[in-house]
Amino acid sequence: MMYKNLLKGLVSGLVLSTALSANASQILFAHVNTGNYVADGNGLAAMLSAAGHDVTTRFLNDAVYDDYSSFDQIFVYDLSVGTDNSAIQNANYANIGDWYNNLTEQNLILDGRMISSYASWTNANGMSPEDAWMQNYAHQLDLRGGGLVLGTDHNVFASGINSINNAIGVSDFYGSYGSYPSSQAVVDVNSPLYLDSLDTCRSDSSSGCINDNSSTGFVATGLQANGQMLTPVAYHGSNLDAWNYAAVSSTMGSLTFGTCGGADQPPCSVPAPGSLALFGLGIAALGFAKRKRA
Questions:
Q1: How far, CA to CA in Å, does 274 sit from each of 110, 280, 286?
Q2: If you compute the radius of gyration of the chain from its CA atoms, what whole number of angstroms results?
Q3: Which of 14, 62, 159, 162 is least enclosed by beta carbons within 10 angstroms?
Q4: What single DSSP character describes residue 214?
């Protein structure tokens, strides 16, 4: 009996270990450069490690890397003030762009206030920790086969990371918005990045907000040069403002969320005519199969 229980315990442990490893991704967390906010970036990387992912941290100004294909997900963090376009950095930006452009599943998240998810910023503003917010980025990308997260802050910081935006055909991070607490960002409840555990918004207690403690940068939304539709995930103001004042946007399998189809909003995407035709053929085939069995 003792050996039977021991074997049962070993099998259970193996199953649990397999389940955890199946959800673990190889993630690169890449700092554009050194600077005052490296510790904050490392704190964000630690959140991903705590969720069971294998995280490699590096600086894109150190050396030119050509191993990007070994990663499932890449998080690029640009909180470096000034111009970050050395020959080494530009080569890495180009290599990351090539990696993304060759992905089968081109899932993308743009975060114009990434540093605001780190504990020192949420704590200072009386908000809940946002470990789960960052971890959900990795989780949602993992569900969809991987992808890219680009994170920065307002326009003083974005010169380096915008080189990657250009390489993958999406518009730049830009601008500088407001001051806390007005700069809390409302999260679209229809987005897969939404979490039930979010703090309520100070401006509207019926909505969930993420911390956006200071002067965020805005992110690209709408149809991009690469053909992707970037949908607002978190934004300032009302739902009608989402497409112009987005703090976070994403594209995941061409999903659209709740911020479309209303007055002054872009239309929600619909299946292409070919997709509708295939759907109709599928329904017809099911009906034929049922009649044949009858």
A1: 30, 10, 19
A2: 21
A3: 14
A4: S
Helices (H), the chain: 2-22, 38-50, 87-101, 119-124, 131-143, 161-168, 273-293
**Closest to 163 measured CA to CA, from 91, 58, 225, 80:** 91
Considering the entire predicted model, what is its pTM? 0.82
Strand partners, 187: 234
Rounded distance between C-alpha atoms, residue 210 and residue 98, angstroms:
31
Q: Which residues contact 292 (CB under 8 A, 6 or more apart)?
A: none
Q: Report the alpha-carbon distance of residue 148 to residue 285 in Å, rounded.
A: 39
Q: Which of 172, 150, 152, 184 lies closest to 221 in space, CA to CA?
A: 172
pLDDT score at 213: 73
pLDDT confidence bin for 24, thresholds 50/70/90: confident
Tens digits of residue pLDDT in 110-149: 999 999 999 999 998 889 999 999 999 999 999 999 999 9
DSSP per-residue string spanning 26-69: EEEEEESS-STTHHHHHHHHHHHHHTT-EEEEEETTT-----GG
Express each pLDDT in 270-286 by its tens digit.
434 333 334 344 434 44
The angle formed by the CA atoms of residues 229, 234 and 240, to the nearest 5 degrees, is 75
